[in-house]
Design goal:
Elements lengths: L35 E4 L4 H12 L4 E5 L4 H9 L2 E4 L11 E4 L8 H9 L2 E4 H9 L3 E6 L4 H14 L5 E3 L11 E2 L5 E5 L14 E4 L7 H4 L2 H13 L6 E5 L3 H12 L4 E5 L6 E9 L2 E8 L2 E7 L4 H17 L4 H9 L9 E6 L2 E6 L4 H15 L4 E5 L4 H15 L4 E4 L16 H9 L4 E3 L2 H11 L5 E5 L7 H10 L1
Parallel strand pairs: 1-2, 1-4, 2-3, 4-5, 6-9, 6-10, 7-9, 10-11, 11-12, 12-13, 17-21, 18-19, 18-21, 19-20
Antiparallel strand pairs: 7-8, 13-14, 14-15, 16-17
Helix pairs in contact: 1-2, 1-4, 5-9, 5-10, 7-8, 9-10, 11-12, 12-13, 14-15
Length: 486
């Protein structure tokens, strides 16, 4: 089936394109990929591609700058993985898969261009792996990993045998991707560089549309235009599932509906097609009534927060209305969801102090996870260690990060994790600390050793320590448990 024609129109600006990749090009059949070499194979997104291609019987090689347990697991699965980047690694390769984070001067990518090898963006390789299964693409500034993970677990529990590619490892399965024989393929769709246009989904889920990735889009209006274009890639007769509680997602739903697209809205808002009412937030779990047409059922999850009830509602709507799975079996599967690595993941409890790790890296995510953690901490203290991700994001959203962190009793800010970016003059974690201290909050910029020592000194039984960020801060959890144990 073809995609629904849906252009931004005169009210919205044109959407930028990544000149390095044509994500709107026809999908390359899996059988035509030949021998595939994957750069940065140890990353969350790229390792998912390696797993899917291995499941499909493809000869997969790869490389990464550093060795890791994840690379060891990929080698055990049959992939040939090198540590370090060298043009000689491309010998025998037909297709090279990269992400936008791989620079053109990478020796392997440069050699692939010089040799005329097929170079695909990660999203294009994922589209190839999807084959002819019904494609569910989950997008949004916040919640897409949890929503796609919840949907996957619900389908697995219902016996649907879905394929999936997620931004984090399922705690129950211990993997972030698998190729199976069921009718559906669930994929987390990354909007950061416009690559979510590659999938042509049968069902598209948009959890929210908020300002982010302005280094690529420039402004929020262009972000909105990109999501509208994403909705336009839904195949004819497909479904857009949109959150009625988010203003940007609601505008998207209205525009898509006006263009003739089938739209289903979910949320706590009046008029939502799948509506949540009477929520009960109970520590690390939550439940609510779910009203779907004439039916009223209970939605219960074992992860905390109102935002996770919304994520579960999105998964329910996609499964029940988009894929036709029996509603109660979907709800039963959502109740079995055991979490995703780095999404409010409890690392351990020592001396009555709980250490939790979360991947939140934009203001909306940070606000949601800090609010939830504060509710769980109750009368005890919440200590947050936050590592900003990207200099451009820190520059653009410092005030939003400060606002999201404000409920914490103590905020320790690590240096910015630059990832793919070079430093920007005048941009540091102090941009976040300054408005917090000006508002009378306890916040300071520290190095890792000082953060560890501060937690050891400050934390008391009952307190919650939360590490937050998309960089290497995740490694801090075990160290915190060690110093608390002393």
């Amino acid at each position: 089936m073809g995609e629904t024609p849906l252009a931004p129109g005169s009210a919205l600006p044109p959407v930028p394109r990544n000149p390095r990749f044509d994500v709107l090009a026809p999908r390359v059949p899996l059988a035509d990929l030949g021998v595939v070499h994957v750069l940065a194979a140890g990353g969350a997104g790229m390792s998912a591609i390696v797993r899917l291609l291995l499941d499909a019987g493809v000869d997969v090689r790869g490389s990464d700058a550093h060795d890791s347990p994840l690379l060891a697991r990929l080698r055990e699965r049959g992939a040939t993985i090198w540590v370090g980047h060298d043009a000689e690694h491309l010998a025998g390769a037909d297709t090279v898969v990269v992400s936008s984070a791989i620079r053109e001067d990478n020796p392997e990518l440069a050699a692939a261009r010089r040799l005329g090898l097929r170079v695909l963006h990660r999203s294009q390789a994922l589209a190839s792996a999807m084959g002819e299964q019904a494609r569910v693409a989950v997008a949004g500034a916040n919640g897409k990993t949890t929503t796609s993970s919840m949907l996957t677990v619900a389908l697995l529990d219902a016996g649907e045998q879905p394929s999936f590619a997620l931004g984090g490892e399922l705690s129950t399965q211990g993997v972030n991707a698998a190729l199976d024989t069921g009718a559906a393929f669930v994929a987390e769709a990354d909007e950061s560089d416009g690559s979510f246009l590659a999938y042509r989904p049968d069902v598209a889920v948009v959890t929210n549309v908020q300002p982010d990735h302005l280094d690529f889009y420039g402004d929020f209006e262009t972000v909105e235009a990109a999501y509208l274009e994403f909705a336009g890639t839904i195949v004819e007769g497909g479904l857009l599932v949109a959150c009625a509680d988010d203003a940007g997602s609601e505008r998207l739903a209205a525009r898509a509906s006006a263009a003739g697209l089938r739209v289903l809205r979910y949320g706590f808002a009046e008029g939502a097609d799948v509506r949540l009412v009477d929520p009960v937030l109970d520590g690390t779990s939550a439940r609510t009534a779910l009203v779907d047409g004439e039916a009223r059922r209970e939605l219960s999850i074992t992860v905390p927060g109102r935002h996770n009830l919304l994520n579960a509602a999105a998964a329910y709507a996609a499964a029940a209305h988009g894929l036709g799975v029996e509603p109660q079996s979907v709800l039963d599967g959502l109740a079995a969801y055991g979490g995703t690595r780095r999404r409010f993941e409890t690392k351990g409890v020592v001396g009555g102090v709980t250490v939790v790790d979360d991947y939140a890296h934009n203001p909306g995510k940070v606000e949601a996870v800090v609010r939830t953690a504060k509710e769980i901490a109750g009368e005890h203290r919440l200590i947050v260690i936050f590592q900003p991700h990207l200099y451009s994001r820190t520059r653009d959203f410092a005030a939003g990060f400060a606002s999201g962190l404000a409920p914490a009793d103590e905020v320790l800010l690590l240096d910015v994790y630059g990832a793919r970016e070079d430093p920007i003059d005048g941009v540091s974690s102090q941009l976040i600390a300054t408005p917090l201290t000006a508002a009378g909050r306890s916040a300071r910029v520290v190095d890792t050793e000082t953060a560890l020592a501060s937690v050891a000194r400050l934390a008391q039984p009952g307190d919650l320590v939360l590490t937050v960020g998309a960089g290497d801060i995740t490694h801090l959890g075990p160290q915190l448990l060690e110093v608390l144990g002393r």
